Amino acid sequence: MVEILSLEFMQNALISGLLISVACGVIGSLVVINKMGFIAGGIAHGAYGGIGIAFFLGISPLLGASVFSLILALIIAAISLNEKSKIDAIIGAIWAFGMAVGIIFIDLSSGYNVDLMSYLFGSILAVSGADIGFMSVLDLLFITLIVLFYRQFVAISFDAGFAKIKGVRVRVFYYLMVAMMSLCVVATIRIVGLILVIALLSIPPLIASGFTKRLGVMMVLSSLISAFFCIFGLILSVSFDLTSGASIILVASVCFFIFYLFRNFR
Questions:
Q1: What is the dihedral of CA 11, 15, 21, 23, to 10 degrees?
Q2: Which locations, inside or outside the cell, does it occupy (predicted)?
Q3: Which are the contacts of 212, defined by CB distance < 8 A and separation ≥ 6?
Q4: 83, exposed or middle or buried, with CB in 10 Å at 0-12, 13-18, 19+?
Q5: What value does the mean pLDDT of the chain take?
C-alpha cells in the first residue's frame, strides 16, 4: 500500500476525496436540513444531459455538466418555490429529460468513449489535475459563502417564513443554495458517479445530525465522516480491485446502518 501511495493517480485520488468531502459536508448538510434530496437527485441525473452535449461538442464534460446542471437547478428552484404541490412530478420529468438529452447526444457523437462510465459510476482513481483544481475552487467558494451568509442559510433552513419577516431575501438565498448544490453534485459525480451521488451527499449529514443540531458543527462533522468514507472506500477499492465509487458508498451505507441500529438499540 505504501508503494501505491507514491503513485500520482493515487495521490490525486486521496486529495480529491478530501476536497469533495468538504463540499459534500457543507452542501450535504443543507440538502438534509432542507429535505432537498430529491431535488439533488434530479439535478444529478439531469447533469447527464450536459455530459452528453459536452462529448458531442468536444468540450470538457465537467464544463458541460456544470452549465447544464446550473440551468436545471435554477429551473427547479423557480418551480419548487411556485408549484410545491407538483414538485415531485416536475423533478421526475426534468430528471428524465436530462438523461434522454445525454443519451441522444452521445448517440450522435462519433465513436464510444469509455470515460462515460466513470461519470455514471464514478472513478476516483481517474481524477485529473483539472478536476482537483475545480474541486478546490468549489470548496473555497462554498466555505466563503457559508462564512459570509451563515445566519441567512440557518434562517431559511429552519424557518423560512420567519426569516422573510426579518428581512432575509429568502428567494435569493434559496436560488443560491440550489446553485451551490448543483455544482457540488457535478464535482461529486467524478468521485462516485451520478447514480450514487445522493448517498455521499446525504449519509454523512444524516449520521452527523445524530450528534448535533447546530448546522455549522454538522457541516464539520459531515466533512470528517465523508473523508473517512472516501479514504476507507478507496483503500477497499485498491486492495480488492473493486469499483471505487461503489466501494465508497458501500462503506458509507454499512456505517449508516450500524449507526442507525445502534441508535435505535440505545
A1: -150
A2: Cell membrane; Membrane
A3: 218, 221
A4: exposed
A5: 88
Three-state helix/strand/coil letters over the chain: CHHHHCCHHHHHHHHHHHHHHHHHHHHHHHHHHCCCHHHHHHHHHHHHHHHHHHHHHCCCHHHHHHHHHHHHHHHHHHHHHHCHHHHHHHHHHHHHHHHHHHHHHHHHCCCCCCCHHHHHHCCHHHCCHHHHHHHHHHHHHHHHHHHHCHHHHHHHHHCHHHHHHCCCCHHHHHHHHHHHHHHHHHHHHHHHCCCCHHHHHHHHHHHHCCCCCCHHHHHHHHHHHHHHHHHHHHHHHHHHCCCHHHHHHHHHHHHHHHHHHHHHHC
Kindly report, residue by residue over 116-161, the tens digit of the pLDDT. Answer: 777 877 778 788 888 899 999 999 999 999 999 999 999 999 888 8
Number of C-beta neighbours around residue 263 at 10 A: 10
In the CATH scheme, what architecture does the domain 2-265 have? Orthogonal Bundle (1.10)
Greater pLDDT, 108 or 110 = 108
pTM: 0.91
